[in-house]
Amino acid sequence: MREEFDALFCNLISAMAKSSKQRTLSVYLYIPNIVGYIRIVLNCIAFALCFSNRRLFSILYFVSFVCDGLDGWFARKFNQVSTFGAVLDMVTDSTACPLAILSQFYSPGLVFLFLLALDIASHWLQMYR
């Protein structure tokens, strides 16, 4: 009787472990990645309006900048760290768009394009170190 109970208990624990493995959250739905998706939307709207509404552009860009700090905090707080999230964070770091826009408005545009190349190279090196 005791052996049957132990076998039943082991089967129950095994079934619970399998069901908990099936319930793991997809990396695409991690909280920090959702913040990254929100940043992408904010930046798209901001840069669509950058020439017509500078104030709204500044506000949306600032909110996106604040969210850049939040996604890392959420990743550590909820232990939702992933390679996908790291790449998404680098892609949504929106220094590239302002540098490209600034290179069109100011006479030493090559300075901004150099900074853009430096930004891209540093992110690339950070990922592959």
Automatic annotation (TrEMBL):
<dbReference type="GO" id="GO:0003881">
    <property type="term" value="F:CDP-diacylglycerol-inositol 3-phosphatidyltransferase activity"/>
</dbReference>
<comment type="similarity">
    <text>Belongs to the CDP-alcohol phosphatidyltransferase class-I family.</text>
</comment>
<dbReference type="GO" id="GO:0016020">
    <property type="term" value="C:membrane"/>
</dbReference>
<protein>
    <recommendedName>
        <fullName>CDP-diacylglycerol--inositol 3-phosphatidyltransferase</fullName>
    </recommendedName>
</protein>
<dbReference type="InterPro" id="IPR048254">
    <property type="entry name" value="CDP_ALCOHOL_P_TRANSF_CS"/>
</dbReference>
<dbReference type="GO" id="GO:0005794">
    <property type="term" value="C:Golgi apparatus"/>
</dbReference>
<keyword id="KW-0443">Lipid metabolism</keyword>
<dbReference type="InterPro" id="IPR000462">
    <property type="entry name" value="CDP-OH_P_trans"/>
</dbReference>
<keyword id="KW-1133">Transmembrane helix</keyword>
<feature type="transmembrane region" description="Helical">
    <location>
        <begin position="56"/>
        <end position="75"/>
    </location>
</feature>
<dbReference type="Pfam" id="PF01066">
    <property type="entry name" value="CDP-OH_P_transf"/>
</dbReference>
<feature type="transmembrane region" description="Helical">
    <location>
        <begin position="27"/>
        <end position="49"/>
    </location>
</feature>
<dbReference type="GO" id="GO:0006661">
    <property type="term" value="P:phosphatidylinositol biosynthetic process"/>
</dbReference>
<keyword id="KW-0808">Transferase</keyword>
<dbReference type="InterPro" id="IPR043130">
    <property type="entry name" value="CDP-OH_PTrfase_TM_dom"/>
</dbReference>
<keyword id="KW-0812">Transmembrane</keyword>
<feature type="transmembrane region" description="Helical">
    <location>
        <begin position="105"/>
        <end position="125"/>
    </location>
</feature>
<keyword id="KW-0472">Membrane</keyword>
<keyword id="KW-1208">Phospholipid metabolism</keyword>
